[in-house]
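Reviewer 2 asked us to include a model.

Predict the structure of this chain.
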Amino acid sequence: MKSIILKVVLFIVIIVLGYLVYDSINKPLDFKKERARREVEVIQRLKDIRNAQAFYKQANNKYTASFDTLIQFLRTGEIPVVKLIPDPNDTTFTKTISDTLGYIKVMDSLFARRPNFKLSTLQFAPFSGNEKIEMHAGQIDRGGVKVSVFEAKVPYSAYLKGMEEQRILNITASQEDIDKYAGLKVGSMTEPSTDGNWE
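Predicted model (structure tokens):
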């Protein structure tokens, strides 16, 4: 009788230990998979901001730090549709003449092929519960020339919200230890770059 009870207890202990081992392996994998899934959406949002800022700068010779201004520009701004034709007076065929055919809405140019795109969500970090994306713009000096710059960023704590807190703290600390931004960002306030830190 004692041996049967002992076998049952050992079997239960083996099952519990097996589950704990499985869970300790599976949890980090689940976290990594969910983090990657969320980052796809955050990166797309940051790319949308970068594209909108590029059009805004083209029209205004500077970037904006205001989402209200950027969204208003996307709603009402227009860009010329230009056709380049060879200069008939150029025998080398290297010169061109630009001919403006008309104008197209910035919104249509950027987001016409994305039927689910909502302009009202541009300023919010996905998965964050409507936390605003941090955005800055200004100018820096590069060799005596003023260069316009912008930066938009979303910390891990915003877009990983609701996931395992300790893992978020660990990846944040690992980035801060090597002086990197703990999250995803596009652009820079110290360099004339519009690259994302995922690129």
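Residues 36-78+114-187 form one domain. The two ends are 65 Å apart (CA to CA). We have added this to the supplementary material.
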